From TrEMBL:
Leader peptide range in chain numbering: 1-20
UniProtKB keywords: Glycosidase, Hydrolase, Signal
Protein name: Glycoside hydrolase family 3 N-terminal domain-containing protein
One MF annotation (Gene Ontology) recorded for this entry: hydrolase activity, hydrolyzing O-glycosyl compounds
Gene Ontology BP term (one): carbohydrate metabolic process
Family, as annotated: Belongs to the glycosyl hydrolase 3 family.
Pfam families: Glyco_hydro_3
Organism lineage string: Eukaryota, Fungi, Dikarya, Basidiomycota, Agaricomycotina
Coiled-coil region list: none
The Glycoside hydrolase family 3 N-terminal domain, residue ranges: 49-345
Length: 351
């Protein structure tokens, strides 16, 4: 039954190496991929992929959110009811506050306003309750980037709590604690920090290099992660920028130096790493989305965000990761440890 569904998916999604991946590897790979789709109606292949255990979760964008979003989320969860993994789906969106919100409602203030006004905790609670009210259980927030100059990349939409690292630390930790108390996991982003990016410098649209010294990265940009990890943040999203003082060859999210040595080793993070959008133009040097997903997984990225609003992207990445597992490109032991971290996060979800 499982194999039959997998073969059907292979045909529906066109030519490719799907037939060569083993069903077990497809399920294992699927545990690492967050899918997306366009519009108000999830496509049938997404429901099918969920039912055969090839989907870890879904990211929802503004164009997915209509009046019936709760029913849509429920229908996707229902498709998961008999999947081989028997783990809740990770249902996520970007609900930072102010201008960066996919759902209407809380937090209506920007991160900068909340931190200045002392309303971060109620904003975090509000974000959690808002997501929970539509069945979502992961928020891709808060931003822990420390902006440098008024109106720069993070400050232009007031996504950064402050330009003061100690304020970002305390506000970030308050947001995480309040939101996670509602049962909605928080994602601290974008490690080790995009706060030094100038206005118009965006990893979604171009490769970005931030020439900060290692000591500035560690004493300024990474400081809020110490508080966030102490507060029990469940996910961390590395950035797609290159920081040559620590790793000159790879963007943070494709860098084992950042993920293993810096985030897990130096800072002691034991939760789940989640990528930023894998199709980001900042990664243009790293081939197809599927190839990038393999490189990210090799570097220690647990979850791959297939955010192109196209179920074919998620399917292609699952297939490529399964093949990379089968042919040994991706180390099975490290991959399985990541699978276990993701499973433990999913198991902890109460809705
Ligand atoms: C949600 O609304 C869309 C657009 O009207 C519709 O196509 C879809 O079937 C609805 N889904 C659910 C689960 O209610
Ligand atoms: C960063 O440093 C490199 C090498 O010195 C240089 O080529 C690049 O222009 C610098 N980038 C910025 C944004 O300053
Ligand atoms: C293993 O599979 C991946 C994904 O299809 C592919 O990119 C890679 O080239 C393959 N490696 C070998 C050695 O076959």
């Amino acid at each position: 039954m499982l194999l039959a569904s997998v073969l059907l998916l292979g045909i529906a999604w066109g030519p490719g190496p799907v037939l060569s991946a083993t069903p077990a590897s497809l399920v294992s790979a699927g545990q690492h991929v967050i899918w997306s789709y366009a519009g108000l109606t999830p496509p049938q292949p997404l429901y099918t992929a969920i039912s055969v255990g090839q989907v870890a979760g879904i990211i929802f964008f503004k164009d997915n959110i209509g009046a019936n979003i709760s029913s849509v989320v429920t229908s996707l969860k229902n498709a998961n009811a008999n999947s081989p993994t028997q783990l809740p789906l990770l249902m996520m969106t970007d609900q930072e506050g102010g201008q960066v919100r996919r759902l209407s409602g809380e937090p209506t203030q920007s991160a900068k306003q909340m931190c200045a006004a002392g309303t971060v905790s109620s904003g975090g609670t509000g974000a959690g309750q808002n997501l929970k009210s539509v069945g979502m259980n992961v928020n891709l927030a808060p931003v822990l980037d420390i902006y440098r100059v008024a109106g720069d990349f993070e400050d232009q939409y007031e996504r950064s709590f402050s330009n003061d690292p100690t304020k970002v630390s305390s506000c970030g930790a308050s947001f995480i604690t309040a939101q996670q108390a509602v049962g909605v996991a928080a994602s601290a982003k974008h490690f080790p920090g995009l706060g030094a990016a100038a206005r118009g410098v965006n990893t979604d649209t171009q490769p970005v290099t931030l020439n900060l010294s290692a000591s500035e990265i560690r004493s300024v940009d990474e400081l809020p992660y110490v508080a966030a990890i102490a507060a029990g943040v469940k996910l961390v999203m590395p950035s797609w920028a290159i920081y040559p003082s620590i790793d000159a060859s790879r963007p943070s999210g494709l860098s084992s130096t950042f993920i293993y040595t810096e985030l897990r080793g130096r800072l002691g993070f034991e939760g789940v790493t989640i990528s930023d959008a894998i199709e980001a133009a900042g990664l243009s040097a790293y081939g197809s989305d599927a190839n990038r997903a393999i490189i990210a997984s090799e570097a220690g990225m647990d979850l791959i965000l297939a955010a192109a609003r196209d179920a074919n992207q998620g399917a292609g990445i699952v297939t490529a990761l399964a093949n990379a597992l089968d042919n040994g490109t991706v180390d099975k032991k490290a991959f399985d440890r990541a699978t276990a971290r993701i499973a433990s996060l999913r198991k902890s979800m109460s809705f």
